[in-house]
Amino acid sequence: MARGIDISEINWVLQYDPPSIASSFVHRCGRTARIGNEGNALLFLLETEDAYVDFVKRNQKVELQQIKTKPNENTIEECLQYVDMGKLAMGFGLLRMPKMPELKRKDVSFFVSPEIDINAIPYANKQRELHRLEKLTEYQNTGVWSTNHRRKQKQTESWSESKKRKLERQEKRSKRKEKKKLKEGLSTTSNKKKRKHIKEEDLEELAKDIALIKKFKKKKISQEEFDAAFGI
Question: Where are the chain's structural domains?
Fold first, then answer.
């Protein structure tokens, strides 16, 4: 659809993901504003993808103009309230509405599935197709879809929650690295000071630090108390 197809009355071309070939980007935009008509093309880019603007300019001599907005924490919800999820799914040619957390409490009543028997669509993989037929036969006999009890089904979560958990894990790893460096630094400092004259106040400070580390190892103090004590 990105090239050579002329569909009338296309006013906007929206690209969610930038193509890796610059000419493909131009051909996609070319589905609108054809034969002297006016049209618009909008490309969504992440902050880490800003180099794509220069990439298209150098390869296709096409200059993109940035639409500057001031999003806030409510921007996404405000935009989504004007989106009909049911019609959007139909626009993507989906055979049925996907089961995902983002669709909870969303009105998808406008979705109309095509007249296609999904259960009649086979897998290309013979082993998966055999397993599907076994489950289908069981459903036809019992009226209930069987589930795999041997493997606990993973709880689905939204992309934003998944991203949040990933950032939290990264932050924890970063803190562990900082504490490891700190412990190594304390050990090195301790060895050096054994060979030198150490002031009494330095010894007391070092003893306090070591005591805190021991308490943390024995889980006598929390992560927050440990971080606060070392100014992390």
Answer: 12-60, 117-148, 172-230
